Amino acid sequence: MSDGSARAPAGRRGGIPLEWITTPLLVGAALLVWHGYVTGFGVSPFILPKPGDVIASWAELLRTRSTWRHSWATVYETIAGFGFALVAGVLMGAVLGKIPWLERTLNPFIVASQVVPKVALVPLFVVWFGFGPTTKVLLAAVLAFFPIFTNTLLGVKSVDLGHRDVMTSLNTSRLQRFRHLELPSALPYIITGMEVGIVLAIIGAVVGEYLGGNQGLGYLLIAKMNAYETDMLFAVLIHLTVIGFAFYLSVGMLRRFVIPWHESVQVERRGR
Amino acid sequence: MTSQPPGEPAEILLRGVEKRFATPDGEVHALAPTDLSVRKGEMLVLLGPSGCGKTTLLRMIGGLLAPTGGDLRVAGRALWDGERRDGAAVQELGMVFQEANLFPWLSIEGNVALPLRLRGMSRAERLRRAQELTRLVGIEGFEKRWPRELSGGMRQRAAIARALSYDPEILLMDEPFGALDAMTRDAMNLELQRIWMETGRTVVLVTHSIAEATFLADRIVLLSPRPGRIDTVIEVPFERPRPLALQTDAAFQAIVRRLRSRLEEIS
Q1: For chain B, how long is the longest CA-to-CA vector?
Q2: Gap between the Cα atoms of A164 and A167, Å rounded
């Protein structure tokens, strides 16, 4: 064929991806520096425990039954809050993206509610919903909502003009246009919003747990702080980081399955 | 303007069709009242300098832009009723744009079959049809690829297949090969001639390439700018299928020269 052939998929440039080598090396170096600092300067373990002690505490934490109850509470609040945020954010973003006058009408209120420090709402939530999981789910949802909402709105509004022409020339209904053009166009934006949103949802859940109740990893952090168990404090932090990673990677996986056609996925596959 | 065989209505008929745009700097008269008739099965090329209203004209025929005046008929039906379009008339139109405008989230066959999916055709049937169409436009074997994996020329072939998928009587093409390099462009002109001869569709194509117009057209409509209006209509008599070598023919070059000197006068 005279007009060129399909681009061949770029071959992997052999061997192990770079970050698989650098990440353990950098983590190891950081641990060494940390250990050297603590032993060399005689830092009190109440201020900064040795990395070895922290790892031992983490292992102990993992063996403790109640850890899993606390973890589950945080995970549940995060998922529930994120789920609400996802549904509300995508729905509102899609509706406002399609109805410009409504967006203009509501815009001042949207900006105002974005600017309010959401964490400042916690006392109010506690007054309304008590110290139970509802307050934490709500805080997670409120934090995760905005990036999902604004990204969906942006995505629905940034549909390619040429693609619009195609749909117009095919004489499509509004619903078909949404289903076959605006929604798939917005998906990469929505997933980017979800990646930010899931991290904020965890923050919402943990901060909610600081302030009330007796469940969750946020509560555990405060308990360890009050008990001056700094090594355990670090262990809970690591535990939270691992859970955060798992959430973030799950959303990242979504990118691969939901929008395998998108540049961000292709670049990941070919880039190295 | 054009003599019609008795009893056979023009496939596309324009009577006094015009377009004015309101802009912040005042009104722009994009197209003066225009009469034009396109025969069934004809390859008509709209040629002109930028700003001559050729794309505006094509978008009005394609149902993408409402005329501000006049009567526009497609396959015997009035296409426009004010800002509203006649669905049955739009059904007879297939559009191809300068960019292929394939949807990146659909495979090539998904793109080609999208119009059929929107019309509720069963999956098996529309994939079978997509297979036929990819063969017709010469991209069989690439059905499962993403659009971004194909070259510009191949993407434009897929766009042509998509426009033909629901069997419209008329194919409207807005500088379809304008974004391609010269070699690919020649190849695509040959391919378009072949597809047109195999399908027998009526084609209206917009271009600003004189050679492309002369090679493809049964009839060239030269438009002049400010406001856009029809300047000259030239019949191109060469036999089909035309080989690329025709471009070195003296008669071919005579037409090209005539068009070029006229273009210089009007732009």
Answers
A1: 55
A2: 5
For residue B6, tell me if it sits in a domain. Answer: no
The last residue of a domain, from among B111, B144, B167: B167
Separation between Cα atoms, residue A39 and residue A48, nearest integer Å: 10
Residues ≥6 apart with Cβ < 8 Å to B250: none
The pLDDT of residue A92 is above 60: yes
CATH for A219? 1.10.3720.10
Domain-located, residue A25: no
Mean pLDDT of chain A, nearest integer = 87
- What burial class does residue B139 get, using C-beta atoms within 10 Å of its C-beta: 0-12 exposed, 13-18 middle, 19+ buried? buried
The one-letter amino acid at B212:
E
Q: What is the pLDDT of residue A267?
A: 59
Chain A residues in contact with B154 by the CB 8 A cut-off are: 1, 3-4, 6
Ranges of residues in chain B with a pLDDT under 50 are 1-7
Distances (CA, A) of A250 to A36, A47, A101, A118: 36, 34, 36, 25
Q: Find, in chain A, the residue whose alpha carbon is nearest to that of B166.
A: A170
Q: Is residue B161 part of a domain?
A: yes
Is the Cβ pair A171, B91 closer than 8 Å? yes
pTM here?
A: 0.81
What number of other Cβ atoms are within 10 A of residue B53's Cβ? 26
CA A162 to chain B, closest CA, distance in angstroms equals: 6
The CATH code of the domain that includes B28 is 3.40.50.300
Rounded CA separation B220/B236 (Å): 7
Nearest CB neighbour to A184, from listed B103, B142, B146: B103
CA distances from A12 to A5, A17, A19, A21, B164 (A): 20, 9, 15, 16, 39
Give the structural domain span for A120.
Answer: 68-270
Same domain, yes or no, for B77 and B52?
yes
Host domain of residue B72: 12-92+170-266
Given this model, what pLDDT does residue B29 score?
85
Select the residue of A6, A166, A263 nearest B150 (Cβ to Cβ): A6
Cβ distance A6 to B187 less than 8 Å, yes or no, reads: no
Q: Which of A160, A170, A183 to mutate to test the interface with B (most CBs of B within 10 A)?
A: A170
Number of domains in chain A: 1
Examine the domain organization and report whether B43 and B120 are in the same domain: no
Judge whether residue A271 has pLDDT over 70.
no
User: Does residue B85 fall inside a structural domain?
Assistant: yes
Residues B80 and B158 in one domain: no
pLDDT at B124: 92
| Number of alpha carbons in the 13 Å side-chain half-sphere of residue A18 | 4
**B253 within domain boundaries:** yes
Chain A positions in Cβ-Cβ contact with residue B153 (cut-off 8 Å): 2-4
Number of domains observed in the structure of chain B: 2
Do B125 and B142 lie in a common domain?
yes
